[in-house]
Amino acid sequence: MANDILGGLLKGFSSFMPQDDPNTKLFQLGNELNDLQQQETQAYAVIGKRVFSNVSSDPEFGDLVLEIQTLQRRIAQVQSQMKATQDEKEAMEKRAQALRCPECGSENQEGVKFCGECGAKLGSSACSSCGTENPPNTRFCGECGNKLL
Ligand SMILES: [Zn+2]
Ligand SMILES: [Zn+2]
Does 28 fall in a domain? Predict the structure, then answer.
């Protein structure tokens, strides 16, 4: 008796399980279809790459061969642009880092020696007497006692 009730409950519950919902089913099947079609396209692409050199002089594929060659040139251009932009980004980050005040974190203009926000010394804090690098805003050189600020 108790089992019947439980069984009935489970049955009732399972009919509302999300996988029985037509929308969920359609969504899952749609995803599966996309996956399968992508795999199919990739397999075609592998065949295409293998036979490309054989058909590249075949006039029947003239337009497509031209298109692929144009695409390959564009891909190379975009790749080198990406590389250049990446380098530029890193250089910018390095510059920003160098101009960032170690005390208050605000960014300063290139060439300034002291933070415009809090007056902390920026850049290298090498001792003018002995050349030892001291932490920013150290008042006296840890090596020779020379006054730094
Ligand atoms: Zn500052
Ligand atoms: Zn010193």
Answer: yes
